[in-house]
Amino acid sequence: MRLRKAAHLAASVVGLLAMGAAAPQANAATAAYSCPSNQVCMYKDANLTGTVFVAQNVPIVVEMDRTYNQFSDLNYQKYTNGERVDNSISSIVASSPSMCADTFTGTDYTGGYQRIWGGWVVNQVVYNDQITSVRMFGCRSL
Ligand SMILES: [Ca+2]
Q1: Where are the beta strands (DSSP E) in 2-116?
Q2: How much is the pLDDT for 60?
Q3: How far is the centre of ligand 1, averaged over its atoms, from the C-alpha of 82 (Å)?
Q4: Is pLDDT larger for residue 83 or for residue 32?
Q5: 87 CA distance to ligand 1 centroid (A)?
């Protein structure tokens, strides 16, 4: 009797675990990508939706005593879904207050320009579907 009750209880637990495992997957499929701290996330669509390009502030270039993580031509970068980033960004999150991003419509940081200040959530960039180069930099001291 006791053994049968234990087996029934075990079966119930397995059933609950199966239900619990299924629910988060359904949520993940519909939720927008949440930008991690200390990163700049560029979304293909407005209001932080669509596929995303996440750029970490890895210092790779030093000019005038400032370090930048920069992409001189987004034609060579891809979103997480494999699409090219160039001329398609619509919204941006700069998740750290100490990291800014300058966006440009031309290659090599030329053309129309918009600064995304650290900590900003920009649901619609000024140059929608026109951003071609981006440079990120530490902006705490600006
Ligand atoms: Ca877009």
Answers
A1: 39-45, 49-56, 61-63, 66-71, 91-94, 99-104, 113-116
A2: 60
A3: 15
A4: 83
A5: 8
Model pTM? 0.73
Structure tokens at 67: 């370090």
User: Do residues 96 and 131 lie in contact, with contact meaning Cβ atoms separated by under 8 Å?
Assistant: no
Q: Same structural domain for residues 80 and 25?
A: no
Ligand 1 centre distance from Cα of residue 142 (Å): 30
Domain encompassing residue 80: 39-138
Instruction: Please check whether residues 46 and 68 belong to one and the same domain.
Output: yes
Q: Quick one: pLDDT at residue 98? A: 84
Judge if 25 and 62 occupy the same domain.
no
Q: Do 56 and 8 share a structural domain?
A: no
Q: How far is the CA of 55 from the centre of ligand 1 (A)?
A: 17
More confident residue, 80 or 57: 80
Taking the centre of ligand 1 as the mean of its atom positions, its distance from the CA of residue 14, in whole angstroms, is 44
Q: What is the CATH number of the domain that holds 108?
A: 2.60.20.10
